[in-house]
Amino acid sequence: MQVTDGTRGGWPLSVGLVSWVRRVAALGSLLGLLATARGGAAAETGEVLIVPPWWAKQAALAIDGRPVGVLPQKVLLPAGDHKLVLQQGKALLPVDVPVKAGRATLVRWPRLNAPEATLTKAVGLVIEPVNAPAAVRQAALTGIHAERYVALGEHGSLDKTPLPAACSETAACLEELALTHGLRFVVSMQLARADAAAPLTLRVFDAESGDFAAQHATHGPEAEAGKRLPLLVAQALRQAPLRPLGLLEISSQPAGAEVLIDGRKRGVTPYRKPASVGEHDIVLHKTGYHDYLNSVDVLPGRGSAIDVVLRADRPEHR
Of the candidates 5, 119, 225, 318, which lies 20 to 30 Å from 148 by C-alpha distance? Predict the structure, then answer.
């Protein structure tokens, strides 16, 4: 079985009243499963799309040991790990499915009795101001889909905790969003005004290197911008993973010093992460020691290393 995140699937066409009744019963069981998991609160959910082998199109489906009727192709489940079992006659097809909030997982059988589950590529999408026209979001989604990504929150529901103001231009905020949901890229769009004809800045944040991987600006009449924006989004997402990166390694004695790169907190020593090509300002901070300041030039495809012995604020008295 193969599970793929973000793949779309529709409910199979059914003919006859019996098939329709079975689907209604299955839907009711699934709703009950979701209600139990919610416990009265709005639970985060993800979508599971099931592509069964040809001979098991009408197989019985059980989720976490609970029968839910005949096989549908698409169900919403609370975020977390779930066990799905298909039964066709005496044949049992079990598969463990990790469900992520706001994302889709595809369960597929590439070979007989060999189910796999995978997540499709997903990206974050942040548009500001929040009252931007729906046409802007739709144009962004068109560009995202053109590069075979899906936007976080398209499939299922996410925590409704609001993002901080100006998150679209704040690398730390975009990085938190990416790390929380296991994403590498976040598409950030910022309009000068809340209308589709306003000047717009489009950027793609790369959580791997911790900075912006691509940037474009566009403005013009609404109809013209609507045609151009999907192409710009697709181009930015296409460019982002292709840009050259280097490797930055920073160690200190003692370890555990806070690492700031270009003025932003990125971790603690020992530190080892990809970095964008070019010069970066490095600061190491640890309570009780003098700050260490330096710059490093990161070259494409190569490693740059810094090993620092931090000096204590007060020399030890002997």
Answer: 225
Host domain of residue 250: 245-309
Same domain, 91 and 128: no
Helix axes 134-146, 222-239, angle to 10 degrees: 40
CA distance 189 to 203: 6
**Are the C-beta atoms of 94 and 84 separated by less than 8 Å?**
yes
Task: Look at residues 88, 6, 81 and name the one whose alpha carbon lies nearest to residue 52.
Answer: 88
Please report, for residues 9, 271, 316, the alpha-carbon distance to residue 107 in angstroms, rounded to integers and kept in the order given.
11, 37, 62
What's the predicted TM-score (pTM) here? 0.76
**Alpha-carbon span 84 to 100, nearest angstrom:** 15
Q: Could you tell me if 253 and 297 lie in one domain?
A: yes
Q: Are residues 183 and 227 in the same domain?
A: yes
Residues 31 and 97 grouped into a single domain = yes
Q: Which residue has the tokens 């993002």?
A: 163
Q: Long-range contacts of range 79-84, CB-CB < 8 Å, 24 or more positions apart?
A: 79/43, 79/44, 79/45, 79/46, 79/156, 82/48, 84/48, 84/50
pLDDT tens, the chain, 318 aa long:
444 444 333 333 333 434 444 454 454 555 555 554 444 445 799 999 998 888 888 899 999 999 998 988 899 999 999 999 999 888 888 999 999 999 999 999 877 778 888 888 899 999 998 888 888 899 999 999 999 999 999 999 988 777 777 788 788 899 999 998 899 999 999 988 877 777 889 999 999 999 999 998 887 555 556 678 899 999 999 999 999 999 999 999 999 999 999 988 999 999 999 999 999 999 999 999 999 999 999 999 999 999 999 999 876 554
Q: Quick one: which of 177, 164, 162, 160 has its CA closest to 41?
A: 160
